[in-house]
Structures are given as C-alpha cells and as structure tokens.
Amino acid sequence: MRLLKFEVTKLVRSPAIFIFLAACLITNISVVLMNSHKREIDYLNKISKVTGFVYNDEYMEKLKTITEPDESLYSDYWIYNSLVQGAENLRNTFEDMEGGNKIQNSLLSKNTPYSKITIKIQQWKYRLYSPIIKEKAESADDKFVYFGSMSDYIHESIFIITGQLFAAECCIFFILIMLWSHGFENMAGTELVTYSTKTGRRLALYKSAAALLLGTAFFIIIYTSGYGLTFLINDLSQILRQNISAQYHTVRESFLGSQPFLTWSSMTVREYFFSSVFIAFLNGLVVALFTIPFGLLIKNVYAAFSSVAGAVFINLMLYLYGLKTDGHIPFLWNLSLATPLPQIVNNDLWFSDGGMRMLLPRFELIYPLFCLIILCPIVLISARKFRRKEII
Predict the structure, then answer these.
(1) Could you tell me if 185 and 179 are in contact, meaning their C-beta atoms sit under 8 angstroms apart?
(2) Is 203 helix (H, G, I), strand (E, B) or coil?
(3) What is the Cα–Cα distance from 361 to 365, expressed in whole angstroms?
(4) d(Cα 168, Cα 344) in Å, to the nearest integer?
(5) Helix 203-233 and helix 162-188: axis angle, to 10°?
(6) For 164-190, what is each residue's pLDDT tens digit?
(7) pTM
(8) How many Å apart are CA 24 and CA 26, to the nearest integer?
C-alpha cells in the first residue's frame, strides 16, 4: 500500500494532469451549456404537470386546456406543437415492426451491402428480438412522452453529444496517465537505479494500479461535474422516470433506416443514464489495459505514445474508410466495431437493437467485457517479459 501511495504521489505532483483536467472541465461546461435545452425542458415540465407524461385517452383533452403559445415564443411554440403532433399521431410503434419480420425481410434484400456472415448473424439477432418486440407491443413502454416528437433531438443533445465527449476525454486520460506512470523513471533518469532490483521491477504493478486509480478519479470528476451541471440546470426528475423506449424516440441506422429505440429489457431514462456511464467506464478500463503493454515494453514514453496513437489511428481509418469498397461492407468491418473508439462514436445505439452496427444482443456490454478478458493475460505476459527485460 505504501508503494502504491508513492506512485500516486509521483503522478499527482505533475501539473500537466491538472492542466488537462482544467481544459476538459472548461470544454465540458461550454458543451453542456450549449446543449442544455433548459427553456424547452422547463416548458415541457410545466405542461406535463397538467397532462402527465404518458400518452393516453385523456392526454389530448388536458393538452387542449393549455393556451397555445404565440409564435414569437419560438421554443414554447415548438414544444407545444410537438406534443400536439405526438398526441394526434399516436401509434403502437412496436406493433408496426411486426415482431421484427420487416427487418428480417430487409436483410434478405438483394441490395443489402453487408457480408453473408453479417446478415446471418443479424437475422439470428432479430429472431431473438421477435418475442421481445411482441412483448413490448403489449406493454405501455412506448406510450411515454419523453420529449414528444423532439425526443431524438433533445436526447442526442443531453446524452449522446456530451456522453461521447466525456467518454473520449476519459479514454485519452487513461492512455496518457498509464504511459506517464510507466515512463516516469525513464524521463526522470532513475530507470537504472529503480529497475536494478526485483523490488524495483515489481513497481510496474503499482504503477499500473496508480494510473488506474487516478484514471478512475478523473472519470468520476468528469462525469459528476458534467452531468451534475446538466441536472443542476434542468429539472429532469420526472423525465428520468419515463421509459427510454418512448413514443417518438428512434434510432437511425444507415441500412435499416429509422427504428424505434427498442431495448432488450424495459429501461427507464434513469437506468439508461447510469448504464451508459458504466459502459463508458468499461471502455476506459479497456483502453487502460490496452496501453499497459506499450508502457511496459517500450522504453521511450514518446515512442510508446506514438505506438498507441498509431494503433488508434489505424483502427479509426479501418472503421471509417479502409474496409468499405464498392459499396460492399465485409464482415471484418463489423469486427472493427469491437474497439472503444467506434463504440464511443456509436453510443447513440447503446442498449437498443443497434441495427447493423451492433452484431450481437447487448453488444455494448459484451464487447468491453470480452476485451477485458482477452487483455488481462496479455498484460500478465507483458509484465513477466518486463521483469526479464534488459534495462540498458
């Protein structure tokens, strides 16, 4: 425990950590303020005190008792008419999916650009989805208002844009702090003295633990400050109780088009929020474990950082461009999704069926857990190799 404390102290004394944290907090405050939608949410809460948060037979009648805002009050007018439009166009969103048969038929289309393996996996996934869709169609999950016909827009602003930013910042910090921890002795010129004994070599374990500890602390600060400000600005107490599969909450997929936000199990907005934070933390742990072998086996911290950055860049290029040719998307492209960067980019799909970008049920949870299982033995092998590595 004493050695861990020393390693944490070494890292905390670096002003670069606090500069990076301050830069992230300033950026986050700006992004949260720009995406708060306070006026719209306040007006929605005001109306919902009269109408409630569930579309039913009485909802429209209660909504008619509220005076329509003047067009000059743009946001209020916009919210009011979106609620009216939502109430007038009420439908059973899950029944419209016909138990997933429409999607399965789309996957059989000759124009499907995905590989045969991907299509077979997707057909299997939607066969598993069929009973869930039927169960949802019989439930009242899709009767919740959430943000009315603006659900997609406001949901993206509050949870997706900020969620991507916070998760990306935390992943970057996990990389930097892990490399800084393992490269500290090299940069300080104490490498020969520190690693000349067995006890010194065992410090690698404490260095990794210290980096994980500080990375977790950074994660907590970023998310509590960012979403704390969001909840301070907006009264989301009633909104968090609604079901995330609300009437007009949809997911946009490039091939399947717009689909209802269908979750594998019933989930409130509060449960969705905390689950998203947990998945983001798992992504951070995956990135941290991925970085450890680079920090252990590459002497120069700048070379180690360049190697990690190169691996991330290659993954990004494969995801964006490298595996898409002539409109055909091979199975290997889908596998490139099983890494933190594409998953953070696709965080709008988390806990939904995910369309063609989520190969397996609950893919957002399965892939980081699988990565952690794979990375743990790799880290242990790297640590063993480090203990036998020549210092000079």
Answers:
(1) no
(2) helix
(3) 9
(4) 7
(5) 150
(6) 999 999 999 999 998 888 876 666 566
(7) 0.86
(8) 6
